[in-house]
Amino acid sequence: MQGIFEFEVGEPKKKIGFKFGTMALAVAEKEEGRSLKSILNSLSVGDVNAMLMLNILYGAAVQYADSKKTEKNFTVSDVSDWCEEIGFDKLNIAIAAGLKQYVPKNSESPAKTGEMITQ
Q1: How do the domains of the chain map onto residue ranges?
Q2: Using one digit for the tens of pLDDT, what is the confidence trace for 4-23?
Q3: Percentage of residues of the chain with pLDDT beyond 90
Q4: What is the DSSP letter of 12?
Q5: Which helix (H) or strand (E) holds 14?
Q6: Distance between CA 89 and CA 100 in Å, rounded?
Q7: Omega before 12 within 30 of 0, i.e. cis
Q8: Alpha-carbon distance 8 to 13, whole Å?
């Protein structure tokens, strides 16, 4: 799970970004005050509130700034302002793509249902 999304916001325009990876989730975990398992469970069952999404986006912004070796000179409130300027339609696409995980096909699956595999 790692997607990088960049946008221009503000006047004058400045480039900001979101990088969805392990660090983004770790920051969201800290901001939420709950476990990663709890956050992922909320995401998987659709039990998502505005603060959770904002904390995930804030975490992704922190990871983006860190990966670009730039100063983290923004707050959760700034990220909220960016979200309003960018628009939630674009952000929803970025979040869904950024948090998407690919599960590899089981290359060792049985040829027939119930067939045992020996190694």
Answers
A1: 3-99
A2: 999 999 999 999 999 998 99
A3: 59
A4: T
A5: strand 14-20
A6: 17
A7: yes
A8: 6
Q: Which amino acid is at 107?
A: S
Q: 39, 50 in Cβ contact below 8 A?
A: no
Exposure letters 11-32 (e unless 16+ CB within 10 A, then b): eeeeebbbbbbebbbebbbebb
User: How many CA atoms, within 13 angstroms, populate the side-chain half-sphere of residue 46?
Assistant: 0
| Cα–Cα distance, 97 to 33 (Å, whole number) | 25
Tokens for 116, please give them: 């045992």
- Distance spanning both ends of the chain, measured CA to CA: 31
**What token pair was written down for 13?**
């325009």
**CA separation for the pair 5, 64 (Å, rounded):** 9
